[in-house]
């Protein structure tokens, strides 16, 4: 695995800072924002190092919103996420790097559509299980596991979404870390790459908590979606040409 240069790490840290800010604000978005940028900078940063940074963020937000957790609601999604994570590792084993970029792009654009169209499914046990399975597949292979769960939970109030997504992501990210480690996609080298990025994510979380009242919801909404779309376009141009 090649060493990541300092300039690349600085840009990667800025992407993690921005992603953490968005995730703290709306309940998901860390990987949606950061994954295409990190993949563009160096494909080795996804999924392993970004997954570790995401785990740090999830633990922080999970603790912050712990009082709003509904474990009975999340149980079907968490159980279904186990086989989903296994499928995600299998995809990493069989997909060339070019197709991994395409998978990341599709996953992100699904997230963009969910946010733009206000699409929502009933929060039935079956839908929660389906969302958990797809989140496992997408989250483990690309680190972007939020869109399927947001699709199911989108109709709830924002506090309920934040709390339950935070709890879901704590457990599900731990599952993905275990699956990636077992599959050989998360090593000590990945940990070393993640170490300088984690503080940037924590700083983004801290800034978000203290400044969200200064940023209007439409600016956050359309700004994050625009950033995601531009990042996807840049990543695909870099990978497919």
From TrEMBL:
Keywords: Cell membrane, Membrane, Transmembrane, Transmembrane helix, Transport
Keyword Cell membrane: yes
This protein's record includes keyword Cytoplasm: no
Subcellular localization(s) per the UniProt record: Cell membrane
InterPro entries: TM_pro_TauE-like, TSUP
Membrane-spanning segments: 44-61, 99-116, 128-145, 165-186, 219-240
Highest taxon, organism lineage: Bacteria
Protein name as annotated: Probable membrane transporter protein
Species annotation: Oceanimonas doudoroffii
């Amino acid at each position: 695995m090649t060493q990541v240069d300092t300039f690349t790490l600085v840009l990667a840290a800025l992407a993690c800072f921005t992603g953490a800010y968005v995730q703290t604000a709306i309940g998901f978005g860390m990987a949606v924002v950061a994954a295409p940028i990190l993949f563009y900078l160096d494909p080795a940063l996804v999924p392993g190092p970004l997954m570790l940074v995401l785990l740090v963020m999830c633990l922080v937000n999970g603790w912050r919103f712990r009082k709003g957790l509904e474990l009975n609601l999340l149980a079907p999604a968490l159980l279904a996420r186990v086989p989903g994570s296994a499928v995600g590792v299998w995809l990493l084993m069989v997909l060339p790097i070019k197709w991994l970029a395409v998978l990341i792009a599709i996953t992100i654009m699904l997230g963009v559509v969910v946010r733009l169209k206000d699409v929502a499914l009933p929060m039935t046990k079956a839908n929660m299980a389906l969302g958990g399975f797809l989140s496992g597949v997408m989250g483990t292979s690309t680190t972007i596991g939020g869109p399927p769960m947001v699709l199911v939970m989108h109709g709830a109030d924002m506090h309920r979404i934040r709390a339950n997504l935070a709890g879901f992501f704590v457990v599900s990210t731990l599952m993905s870390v275990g699956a990636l480690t077992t599959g050989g996609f998360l090593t000590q080298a990945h940990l070393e790459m993640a170490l300088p990025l984690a503080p940037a994510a924590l700083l983004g979380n801290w800034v978000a908590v203290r400044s969200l009242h200064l940023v209007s919801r439409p600016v956050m909404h359309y700004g994050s979606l625009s950033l995601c779309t531009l990042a996807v376009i840049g990543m695909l141009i870099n990978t497919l040409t």
